[in-house]
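Structure first, sequence second, as always.
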């Protein structure tokens, strides 16, 4: 591509004009230099700027529902539409009003770029076989539906243009339409379009649809990945070397931050999250008298298997309530002391939570929204501890998932980010300890020492703030241009031997920031950190290792990371001290820092 071609052909696609090309040499040179990177950078005093479209807040519920309702599989969206329409929409609108008057969040005082976002929810396809919509009304898991409801609501409220589908045939046509200028105006697509799809199974379909354009478009993807993806599974080359790393979900070779998780369990991935549902305002909640009762977390009968003794101990102190889906001939399978309400609507469930003192976990489901809803309603969550931790090595549920993460409890977020007095993590096989914890929790509630608590990152405002920051700053297509979060937010630390960067940063009240691994992966970093060492830093020329950049405790040798796909906050190896990029974070919003906004 050169100036002469641009002079003659800039009108061949509207995307050139979108970036300010008007046929003049000034605009053409800016485009070739600053947008396509074909020419050297312009002088720093250049003031030419491309045209951008501003996103405006959108509170039109009818428009959003109409957009979702256009899908051929619209029946599968019933639960999502119900949550958006009846439960939470007015709260999204309230959050917008709050942002407009609260200058602290800086969302209404800046130019927010408007994006076109193609959202592919393949798990709701008629052909997927998941039947998530049907199971949602019969005690099945709701986490994915909750998260997608909130993603759609947040992106629409932020003023972006959404295209939603769950059918492969629709996807093919939409991709061809949206990507019409991929070959002739690559950067326009990079800056204006994103693709959101459900978990990595959808990537194979997308790679087929994109065909030859796949390696151009893959940086646009944002994958909603509930439990996360780790470096050794993501690298196709590395995962092929080890039998236990082979999984149908791995080998995608994306930037790990392109995977968006339900909870902030791994700094390597981006934390998307969701909004904790609240149907009662503060006044209504305070007017409801708490009874000597507990609500059990488990809506399907199979979750209750083997729980009789555990629940019997608790039933000596509180009345046990449940919301289990049962057929008429299955009610007797629950313990006789359980008062079962069946599946309740959102408002009725939250009223029951507000009447209860305890919310009882039984070990499954893992990492769902319900414990946060219970804590926000003022319940104490009894969180089952796992010893040994549950992972893909010992738990069938995690087999094949692209992560070796170890869950130390049913709900690690509440264990590590909230804790006492709102959460008690306990070994439920130790019945004496269970009884002690139940008594302690009830005493705290009865003496008004437990208050309803909801972390900011799970509120409407928190999700809007976080998602807007991602939309404005995350760039996986030209990451070398603007590193985010900025350098001033990051501090370099050296871990203890065998310690991960995640744990090393956390021990100093910071979080690992993976976007800075490439920046620090150079000899100068080691020279600065180990100025007294006589060992010279050298690139790792053999097999890349997950714990690099690091220092061998035994040899004193410094190692650089030889494969960018293997940068990892969570990896650790005994005998190595890791070099870690750590950053501070906002209270109640771990994904962001004061300098991130």
């Amino acid at each position: 591509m050169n100036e002469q071609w641009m002079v003659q052909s800039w009108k061949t696609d509207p995307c050139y004009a979108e970036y300010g090309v008007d046929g003049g040499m000034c605009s053409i040179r800016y485009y070739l230099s600053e947008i396509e990177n074909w020419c050297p950078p312009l002088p720093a005093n250049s003031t030419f700027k491309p045209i951008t479209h501003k996103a405006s807040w959108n509170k039109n519920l009818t428009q959003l529902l109409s957009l979702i309702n256009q899908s051929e599989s619209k029946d599968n969206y019933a639960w999502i539409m119900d949550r958006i329409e009846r439960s939470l929409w007015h709260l999204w609108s309230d959050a917008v009003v709050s942002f407009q008057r609260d200058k602290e969040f800086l969302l209404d005082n800046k130019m927010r770029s408007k994006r076109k976002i193609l959202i592919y929810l393949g798990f709701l396809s008629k052909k997927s076989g998941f039947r998530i919509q049907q199971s949602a009304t019969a005690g099945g898991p709701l986490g994915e539906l909750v998260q997608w409801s909130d993603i759609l609501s947040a992106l629409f409220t932020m003023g972006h243009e959404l295209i939603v589908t769950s059918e492969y045939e629709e996807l093919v046509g939409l991709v061809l339409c949206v990507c019409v200028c991929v070959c002739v105006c690559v950067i326009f697509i990079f800056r204006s379009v994103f693709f959101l799809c459900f978990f990595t199974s959808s990537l194979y379909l997308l790679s087929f649809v994109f065909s030859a354009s796949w390696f151009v478009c893959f940086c646009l993807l944002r994958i909603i990945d509930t439990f996360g993806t780790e470096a050794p599974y993501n690298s196709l080359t590395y995962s092929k070397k080890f039998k236990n790393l082979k999984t149908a979900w791995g080998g995608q070779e994306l930037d790990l931050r392109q995977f968006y998780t339900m909870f902030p369990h791994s700094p390597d991935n981006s934390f998307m999250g969701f909004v904790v549902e609240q149907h009662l305002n503060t006044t209504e909640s305070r007017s409801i008298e708490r009874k000597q009762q507990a609500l059990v977390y488990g809506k399907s009968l199979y979750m209750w298997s083997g729980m009789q003794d555990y629940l019997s101990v608790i039933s000596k102190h509180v009345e046990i309530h449940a919301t289990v889906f049962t057929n008429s001939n299955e009610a007797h399978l629950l313990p006789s002391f359980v008062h079962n309400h069946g599946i309740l609507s959102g408002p009725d469930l939250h009223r029951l939570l507000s009447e209860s003192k305890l919310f009882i976990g039984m070990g499954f489901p893992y990492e769902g929204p319900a414990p946060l809803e219970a804590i926000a309603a003022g319940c104490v969550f009894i969180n089952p501890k796992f010893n040994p931790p549950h992972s893909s090595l010992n738990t069938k549920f995690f087999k094949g998932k692209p992560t070796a993460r170890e869950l130390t409890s049913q709900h690690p977020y509440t264990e590590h980010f909230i804790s006492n007095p709102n959460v008690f993590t306990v070994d439920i096989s130790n019945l004496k300890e269970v009884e002690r914890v139940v008594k302690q929790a009830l005493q705290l509630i009865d003496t008004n020492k437990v208050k309803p608590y909801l972390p900011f990152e799970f509120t409407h405002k928190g999700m809007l703030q976080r998602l807007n920051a991602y939309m404005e700053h995350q760039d996986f297509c030209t990451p070398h241009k603007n590193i985010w979060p900025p350098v001033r937010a990051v501090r370099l630390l050296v871990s203890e031997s065998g310690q991960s960067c995640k744990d090393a940063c956390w021990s100093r009240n910071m979080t690992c920031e993976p976007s800075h691994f490439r920046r620090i992966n150079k000899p100068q970093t080691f020279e600065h950190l180990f100025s007294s060492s006589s060992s010279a830093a050298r690139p790792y020329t053999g097999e890349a290792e997950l714990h690099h950049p690091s220092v061998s405790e035994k040899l004193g040798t410094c190692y650089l990371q030889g494969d960018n796909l293997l940068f990892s906050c969570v990896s650790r190896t005994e005998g190595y001290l890791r070099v870690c990029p750590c950053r501070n974070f906002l209270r109640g919003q771990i994904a962001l820092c004061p300098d991130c906004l």
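Margin note: The first strand starts at residue 116 and ends at 120.
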